[in-house]
Amino acid sequence: MTVPPPPRPALDSELSTLLAGLPPVPRLDPEVLALLRRLPQAPVAPLLDRHRADLREITVPARDGTPIPLAVFAPSRADRTAPAPCVYWMHGGGMVMGDRFSQIDIPLEWLDELGAVVVSVDYRLAPEATGTVLVDDCYDGLLWVAEHAAELGIDPARIVIAGASAGGGLAAGVALLARDLGTPRIAAQMLICPMLDHRSTSTSSHQYADGPGSWTLQMNEFGWRSVLGDAGEDEVPAYVSPARADDLSGLPTTYVDTGSAELFRDEDTDYATRIWAAGGQAELHVWAGGFHGFDTLFPQASLSITARRTRTAWLARVLRSHRAT
After folding, report:
1. Rounded to an integer, what is the distance from CA 319 to the centroid of its chain?
2. Is 119 within 8 Å of 87 (Cβ atoms)?
3. Are strands 53-61 and 67-75 parallel, antiparallel or unpaired?
4. What's the rounded Cα separation, in Å, for the pair 241 and 243?
5. Beta carbons within 8 Å of 306's beta carbon, 6+ residues apart
């Protein structure tokens, strides 16, 4: 007997129409992953021209000595005056794909609007890297940026960490690490549809097991399995799966957004709720009818434009509050 799918909130009508023209999302396995990793990235040069940005490539050491590439995008020299705010970006890709240029159009909007220096980290990927290696790479890169703020033209009091999907989960893990280790100072964290919980037990993870959009429950489980292997529940570090953290106090002011029609909706809203319960400050947006990654896949859609503008407005407020007097 066929079990009917659970009821679920409807997609935004414009997004639904746009999705109808796309092929179905494939199952993710090692062979498909290898193919996806070989797909060419869009060229960076047109982005630099459009955003009046200079790009500097840097390699910094991870704690085990492995080189970590960083891409540093700064407003063109003619536009620079005082030390700039910094957005330290962690890309998405389920922790198994992507690189420092993935989804880079999102933070480059903040370079345009707010004069921010954008630093994107090329952390190692699973399954080649496992456990805490990915979040450690992101943290080590951030620590280097904070220690070299003057060299990079960055105001160390206005460093914001941000990421989308897997990158949002890594950003949350980095914030926990920075809190627990006491450095570096982070002004805020922006978590865009973050991948926070390896357990996949929420209502939304089953409502949207088959998508729609770019991420399914099968893909999510593949990504987590690639990072965690056969680790038992008690062996999963909260820095890797931040939803496991017992204590969410002492975190920087936080922005969380997610869609009502996506896998991560419930783990994301729960994370914001637990920050409030711990006495922290969080701003939560659940975009009605938004699926996972809707604003990356269809940036021209009305809901995407609204979501991006809202993030930028929040970030502008946060950076103003941290400006040196």
Report:
1. 19
2. yes
3. antiparallel
4. 6
5. 287
Which burial class, exposed, middle or buried, applies to 215 when counting CB atoms under 10 A from its CB (0-12, 13-18, 19+)? buried
Angstrom distance (rounded) from CA 296 to CA 2? 34
Q: Residue 190: in which H helix or E strand, if any? A: strand 188-192
Cα–Cα separations (whole angstroms), residue 253 to 227, 276, 318: 28, 10, 8
Q: What H or E segment, with its residue span, contains residue 59?
A: strand 53-61
From CA 196, how far away is CA 86, in angstroms rounded?
24
**CA gap 292, 212 in Å, rounded:** 8
69: tokens are: 């590439």
- The residue extents of the domains of the chain are 53-321
**pTM of the predicted model as reported, rounded to 2 decimal places:** 0.96
Instruction: Tell me how far CA of residue 32 lies from CA of 35, 40, 166, 215, in angstroms.
Output: 5, 15, 18, 14
Q: How would you write the pLDDT of the chain (325 residues) with one tens digit per residue? A: 556 667 899 999 999 999 998 888 889 999 999 999 999 888 888 888 888 899 999 999 999 999 999 999 999 865 567 899 999 999 999 999 999 999 999 999 999 999 999 999 999 999 999 999 999 999 999 999 999 999 999 999 999 999 999 999 999 999 999 999 999 999 999 999 999 999 999 999 999 999 888 899 999 999 999 999 988 888 899 999 999 999 999 999 999 999 999 999 999 999 999 999 999 999 999 999 999 999 999 999 999 999 999 999 999 999 998 875 4
Under 8 Å CB-to-CB from 278, ≥6 apart: which residues?
247, 248, 249, 250, 251
- CA dist 185 and 268 (Å) reads 24
Q: Report yes or no: 192 and 163 within 8 Å, Cβ to Cβ.
A: yes
3-state DSSP assignment of residue 80: coil
Question: How far apart (Å, rounded) are the C-alpha atoms in residues 43 and 59?
Answer: 20
**CATH level 3 topology of 53-321:** Rossmann fold (3.40.50)
Q: 157 in helix, strand or coil?
A: strand
